[in-house]
Amino acid sequence: MAKTTGKGGKAKSSEIFAGFQNLRSEQRQLANKISELEMDLNEHKIVIETLQAVEPSRKCFRMVGGVVVERTVAEVLPELEGNKERLPQVLQALHEQLAKKGQEINDYIEKHDIKVQRGSENASEVPREDAPAKSNVLVASG
Question: Which of 51, 98, 137, 142 is 20 to 30 A away from residue 91, measured at CA?
């Protein structure tokens, strides 16, 4: 399908590979963003639990856009709770995008007849008895 000969074939296969790498990169970026937002959600929960036990007039500090601002607990707590309520919706949308990107990658693989190799051909393969054993050996000469 994607196999052609000559210089044009190599250029086409490198374009196909670049497209595949681009899709995988986008998938990784989505997964990283999901992970980051899940950590933010957990941090929001911890901070909200902590601030609920504090008197509302007490001052606290919050980082907004890289700048630390001084506020009171009464001002910060509703903002944090609002953010905590919106984060699951954003995470759900990102999970849907990640699933679509995975399907897009699978379609791209099928369309261009790409064979994906992972590490070794069969990770669960038992070493043969006649094959040399792999081991780490440190030899010190005296």
Answer: 51
Contacts of 105 (CB under 8 A, 6+ apart): 20, 23, 24, 27
pLDDT of 31 strictly over 60: yes
Pick one of 1.10.287.370, 3.30.70.120, 1.10.3720.10, 3.40.50.2300 as the CATH number of 7-112. 1.10.287.370
Instruction: Decide if pLDDT at 25 tops 50.
Output: yes
**Could you read off the pLDDT of 68-102 as tens digits, one per residue?**
999 999 999 999 999 999 999 999 999 999 999 99
